[in-house]
Amino acid sequence: MEITWYGDTCLRLKGREGVVAADAYRSVVGPTGRGLTADIITYSHPDDTPPPVRPKGDRLNGHAAGFLRPTSLDPAFILDGPGEYEVHEVLINGVRTFRDDDKGRQRGLNTCFVYELDGLHVAHLGDIGHILDEDGLGEIGSADIVCVPIGSALTAAKAAEVATQVDARLIVPMLVGDGEAARGALDRFMHEMSVSHPTPVPRLSVTISTVPAETTVVILESRSRV
């Protein structure tokens, strides 16, 4: 499986069963999709800009779309809420969470998605803003890879705690925003994880046999300007 980061919480996951784009918002990939392609798109939370996908008949959960011209993401199944799904042989579990630690009263709802691709379980936490409770952690279940937002609602300490809660051996930070503030948030997260900065890589290529025995943080280069 290959994981590519497009900026903020937008990732592309490519496996034998299909290709998933997580949080492919217009604010990240522009009005034409910026060449990003996928069989399935998941949206963890409402965004201030609509996704770059025209309305289609083969959509799930009815996420609002507002583009009339073709994009690189047409056509794709869209998931934007909790539930258990199987699309293009990809198993996906959506778990209701929140974008703050006040049950969503301040910043709204969030959906954590767990994808099963190439026999690996990847937990994409979207824009989660709180420590997982026992129920949420149980619904997410066991994961090999966890993708956690850095620089949004979670402090560095809480982001590290959430990443540790999921108990995945590969941790992929998703840096929300850019500039000094974002880099500072990543530095603090790495300090909380007690690891040094690894060299950023263009993509994460991993199989069941290459998942490390010890917890490892992987920093991905952003394709947000590609």
Q: N-to-C terminal Cα separation, in Å?
A: 21 Å
Strand/helix succession: EEEHEEEEEEHEHEHEE
- The largest beta-sheet arranges its strands as 6-7-8-9-10-11-13
- For the report, how would you describe the main beta sheet? 7 strands, mixed
Secondary structure category:
alpha/beta
Q: Approximately how much beta-strand content do the residues carry?
A: 25-35%
Stretches where pLDDT is under 50 for at least 5 consecutive residues are 55-69
Q: Please report the first level of CATH classification, the CATH class.
A: Alpha Beta
* CATH fold assignment: Metallo-beta-lactamase, Chain A
**Assembly state of the chains shown:** single chain
What Rg is obtained from the alpha carbons, in whole angstroms?
16 Å
Apparent shape: globular
* Strand count: 13
